[in-house]
Each structure stands twice: as C-alpha cells, then as structure tokens.
Specification:
about 60% helix, Arc Repressor Mutant, subunit A, three-stranded antiparallel β-sheet, mainly alpha
Length: about 150
Amino acid sequence: MTADDKDGIEELARAIDALFLAMRQGRSIVVAPDQLSIAQQALLEALLNELALPVGALASAAGVSVPTATRMLKQLEAKGALTRTRVPEDERRVMVELTADGRELVTRQLAHRREIQQVGFAEFAPEERLELAVQLRRLTRIMKGHAPH
C-alpha cells in the first residue's frame, strides 16, 4: 500500500485487475475439439442439475446474452452434446437438454477443473479458503449491483 492509498482501494483494484487478467488468459486457451471452452462449460453446467432448461435461463446462469447462448448451443448441438427442442405451446421458447455424451463431457471437465483448482487452493489454510469465498461472493454482489445496465 502506498502513502496516497491509505484505505487500500487502489491496491485492491490492482489485485482484482490482476486476477481478472489471469482468468481471461485462462479462458483464451485453445481447447481440443473434444473439449468445452470455459464459456461453454458455464453455459452447460446448470443442466447437470436439471433435465432441461430454456435458453434464457442458461444464458442468465452463464452471464451471456441470449443470442450468444443460442450461437454456442447450436455449435454444441452439432457436436452431439445437447438437444434443443421447441416448446409446442410456445414456438418461441426452446428447451435445452444434455445428451448422455454431453453430460459425461461436462461432468468430466468440471472434475478436471476442480482438480486443478484444488492444487492452487491448497496454498490457503481451510479457514482462509472459507473467508475468501465469503468475500469473493460479497464482492461479486457489489460489482453486479454497480454494473452499468
């Protein structure tokens, strides 16, 4: 902390910027054709706990726009990871369901990501991890509350 940053805001901002950059760099890694990108994983993970969900719900859970989600879902459907079905009562609404292969792929990649995270998270004591999780969730709520609409 510098003398002109007595409250630590600039130091925290720099730390968050560095974390964001590291996460962006991790997202830009080219994945093999039989793998999902982090954005695709975020879109599909909600389906691990549901039989089917509408495109809008998946987009919201992943933090992307509906057109972006639709484009990604079309690509994933072509790869056999999911099926999209129009709702007969409302042709505008599309429900998405993982195929068996898609469910296995999302589950396998989530497990692999957790293994990698465990290595890094082991650098923190258990109580530090819990406190960090609380503070990160709090920061996420604050940042979402101040995001431009």
